[in-house]
Write a structure and sequence with these properties.
With about 425 residues, the protein is mainly α. Helices cover about 80% and strands about 0% of the residues. It has one domain: MFS general substrate transporter like domains (Growth Hormone, Chain: A, Up-down Bundle), CATH 1.20.1250.20.
Length: about 425
């Protein structure tokens, strides 16, 4: 029996099927996040060829993420109608093809237009993949599974920038994007051939337990909604107060994260590192982020999500300041810690989404969350770029650290567990 993905149907997944689905979604996350970061070590090359300022360079990432953020909710709804795997595969393939087409752009304006279209495919991976993994995660391990999914994205952020930087240094940025895009499209399409659930998996006792867990999670979410005055789950959200606060924290968390990474290559080159070295050093940030997302999920399951958010956000602000003040060999451990704290918080925030949504409406719930946070992430490079043109690059980083600390008082409005 194949696992059909009907709208709102509760998944009957065994432990093995949960792991297989986690692997599939993780590969898609690897490609999508890797593509988003592979552009960073190439930005100085692109800026030099097209003669761009900081603001013009930041606009590349803003346009790149415009449809990425805007399509989160439509992809979530579409996944409920035609199947999550179909939407996940189609989105990643479109993103990969768009990356390859960037290599053909003859001018800055055409490059921006192509980046805009490429971002349309990138919007599927986060909401659909997160929803799929959250529905199949074993009892009491949702944060751990979400953390593992996020870990895969940071593995992509660690490896693909190295490849992009190396290819860009030897063959130029156009060849780098062409090779990465074509390879990713082939890999994403091949994953669609995977079987998700074998007949034997659906017949064992784990399937029944998974279904009971899903019913129990949905009942708890609906009960929580009634406690907060929400008798009906509108758009799959049962607790709009917590969901709104969560989105606010996600926005404030995304703004500095995107800005810090977008202009880090300029700071590293300013202190004397080569373009090839910058790609490797950005991978060091991603490696720290991968570890952060992997460990912050289980940490939140043990200590409570609110406490985990407060600690990681404060430490993130501290490492941003240390990055712009660091020098010499000190910059290497700072980059690793910057990635660890900068990205680790997201695993905790993603795991709060199911607390405020029903099981059936979780795809659109994740879609709404990713729409707002990715919109903030998308606009941040351009906004901070223009700010950097006015107050300077280093002062801009101190401003980003201050913005990040605004998440601390907001976190007290969230349930700890």
């Amino acid at each position: 029996m194949r696992w059909r993905q009907l709208p709102g149907q509760l998944r009957e997944a065994s432990g093995q099927a949960s792991v297989r689905e986690l692997i599939r979604c993780s590969v898609h996350h690897f490609l999508n996040d890797g593509y988003n970061w592979s552009i960073f070590p190439l930005l100085p090359f692109i800026a030099a060829e097209f003669g761009l300022s900081y603001g013009g360079t930041g606009a590349i990432k803003t346009v790149f993420n415009a449809l990425l953020s805007a399509t989160g909710v439509p992809y979530g709804i579409l996944a409920e109608r035609i199947g999550e795997v179909i939407v996940l595969t189609g989105g990643t393939v479109l993103f990969a093809v768009g990356i390859a087409c960037l290599s053909l752009a003859p001018s800055y304006s055409v490059f921006l237009g192509t980046a805009f279209v490429a971002g349309a495919g990138a919007g599927a991976s986060h909401p659909v993949g997160s929803s799929l993994v959250s529905k199949t995660a074993p009892r009491g391990r949702m944060s751990t599974y979400i953390g593992a999914l996020n870990f895969s994205g940071d593995v992509g952020k660690a490896l693909l920038p190295i490849a992009a930087g190396a290819l860009g240094a030897v063959f130029g940025w156009r060849v780098a994007l062409l090779v990465l895009g074509v390879a990713g499209a082939i890999l994403a399409f091949s994953l669609s051939r995977w079987k998700t659930l074998d007949s034997g998996d659906a017949e064992n006792g784990d399937a029944k337990e998974a279904q009971e867990d899903a019913h129990e999670q949905e009942a708890e979410a609906e009960a929580d909604g009634r406690e907060n005055g929400d008798e009906d789950a509108t758009w799959g959200v049962t607790n709009w107060l917590q969901f709104s606060v969560l989105n606010g924290i996600g926005i404030l968390d995304s703004l500095p994260r995107s800005g810090v990474i977008a202009f880090s290559s300029f700071i590293l080159m300013d202190v004397g590192f080569s373009s090839a070295a910058v790609g490797a050093m950005l991978s060091l940030v991603a490696a720290g982020g991968a570890l952060g997302k992997l460990v912050c999920g289980p940490l939140a399951d043990r200590l409570g999500r609110r406490n985990a958010i407060i600690v990681t956000e404060i430490l993130t602000a501290a490492t941003i300041v240390a990055f712009v003040r660091g020098d010499g060999l000190l910059i290497y451990p700072v980059l690793f810690l910057l990635g660890l704290f900068l990205n680790g918080t997201s695993s905790v925030l993603y795991a709060v989404v199911p607390q405020s949504t029903t099981e059936a409406g979780r795809s659109r719930g994740f879609g709404m969350y990713y729409t707002t946070t990715l919109a903030a992430s998308g606009i941040a490079p351009m906004v901070y770029g223009f700010i950097g043109d006015i107050i300077g690059l280093y002062s801009m980083y101190h401003l980003m650290a201050a913005v990040l600390l605004l998440t601390v008082p907001l976190s007290f409005f969230l349930r700890s567990r």
